[in-house]
Amino acid sequence: xxxxxxxxxxxxxxxxxxxxxxxxxxxxxxxxxxxxxxxxxxxxxxxxxxxxxxxxxxxxxxxxxxxxxxxxxxxxxxxxxxxxxxxxxxxxxxxxxxxxxxxxxx
Length: 106
What we know:
- This protein is an alpha+beta fold and 106 residues long.
- It has helices at residues 2-8, 15-52, 95-101, and strands spanning 58-60, 66-72, 76-81, 84-89.
């Protein structure tokens, strides 16, 4: 009995044998276009935003701190707030919140 079950489930035949790899490839393609590609595009936009900021721009950090850029370095920025100044990494600036709060007039 066990031998009959093993023989019948050993290899799919005909079209089913070709459909399994195509299904797997299809799943990978869908994952790329719906998950990986949008995330890499968002990271690229964030990097471009952080490179394009200038002294005097109003920004919002990831933690929600609002301020104006007072001084900039290659990797750090100093923001001016109501209570004083704070030095932060460029990566701490949120492009989504900044653009939503302080849109640039072009």
